[in-house]
């Protein structure tokens, strides 16, 4: 296989195409997961239209395929805002809206007209802040009460999704041993940064997307965002007794784990792409052999 270093900026050359096993697209077996690698483009790597991939690796769809969305909420104490009267809260809301909208002229007037109400409702909060636990102890001893902190939870952020794909590769011949070696090499190559001949800076590694074939099954699985590879774990001869091919010395069994992480978060708007997946059976071109 040609060195991918020669392919990065030369559009006249064919991208790296690898599939395992060799009969991945044999009779009765047309389902696969295809990893496509693209050059990182600044300043926006999440652009919708990507150029031609630098390389593609097609593998069987792994078991226990899952996508987990995480949304983070943070606990907070409402304090004086939660205890304030409705009119005071309304006044605070009006001031906030004028502030974020840049309406500076009337903010001063509103502050003057609402100062009394705001101060009366914040007095207890000031005392609570200055005295801390001592204030609560005093209130408890004198009146048998404790301030209600009005604990609640507010939305904070959307987590970036991660995926892990696990494989056990068992080569049936030397050619498949060479293909496994190429898969591992190119996964590492595309996932690592470059120094561009220097040592002071890292240049961003390639980004990756993955999809499933045939096209029609994507509609019932999921569509990931653009990802970066965060981990590649390779275990050689994972069984109890290490076994090698007599003629080549290649290990018979290799366990591969690939971890990827999305580079952008999901929103209601971005989820609309799920509705646009076609029902057709257009497939990525079948890859029969590793290019020489």
Tally of separate helices: 5
Q: Major beta sheet, specifics?
A: 4 strands, mixed
**Overall radius of gyration:** 29 Å
Mean pLDDT: 75
Termini separation = 5 Å
- Helix content range: 25-40%
- How many domains? The number is 2
Strand order of the largest sheet: 1-3-2-7
Structural class of the helix and strand makeup? Answer: alpha+beta
The best one-word shape is elongated
Order of helices and strands: EEEEHHHHEEHEEE
- Uncertain spans, ≥5 residues at pLDDT below 50? 1-12, 280-292
Strand content: 15-25%
Query: Total number of β-strand segments?
Result: 9
What does this structure look like?
The protein has 292 residues and is an alpha+beta fold. It has 2 domains: 4-70 and 159-276, no CATH class; 71-157, no CATH class. The protein contains 5 helices and 9 strands, in the order ββββααααββαβββ. A 4-stranded mixed β-sheet has the order 1-3-2-7, with helices on one face. A 3-stranded antiparallel β-sheet has the order 6-9-8, with helices on one face. Helix 3 crosses helix 4 (133-143). The protein is elongated.
